[in-house]
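Worked example

This section walks through a single chain of length 188. The input is the sequence exactly as stored; nothing has been trimmed or padded.
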Amino acid sequence: MTHDALVKRALVYLRRRRCVIYGTEVNATSEVPDAIGWTCWGESVVVECKASRADFLADAKKPHRGPEVGMGSERLYLAPDGLLDAGELPDGWGLVEARGRLTIVTLRPEPREVWDRHADCLALLHLARRACDYNPSALHAKIQAERAEQRDRARRFSEAEAESKAARAEMLEAARARHPELFREAAP
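Given that input, the structure is written out below as tokens.
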């Protein structure tokens, strides 16, 4: 499994974790997480993707991997199944493994009390600037496009629901025609 495929999985994982804001390769500080997300409660989740053991071993030398430094109130490694052992992770890190089409949490870390909140804020600002491409009208256009897509989905759903209702009524009429004895009115 490639690093890019793992990063895509990390974003899916963050969405499932109910992160309302998330992004990849946020280089607002010296630490550049593969994926980071924020929940509506202000918790930040950092996911480092490792496609090889060599990458994991090199990552251990980075200064922001210690228990009380670096971004993220929760920090996880995402790796292919069996690549990493939970016992070799740095203190405070969890492990998520990619098993086929599933993403399984092997070791859930305890949320940290102390982390680099300033770096988290810088990363969040970086994502906000990236989202609107330094142009508020671009953000407005993206919101309008999303609303139009939602309206289109709602319209298609309503049409499908109406077709389904018509098909059920048609089937009921056909059944009444074939078996009128089943649909006789009960005498009062």
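What to look for: The CA atoms of residues 153 and 173 lie 30 Å apart.
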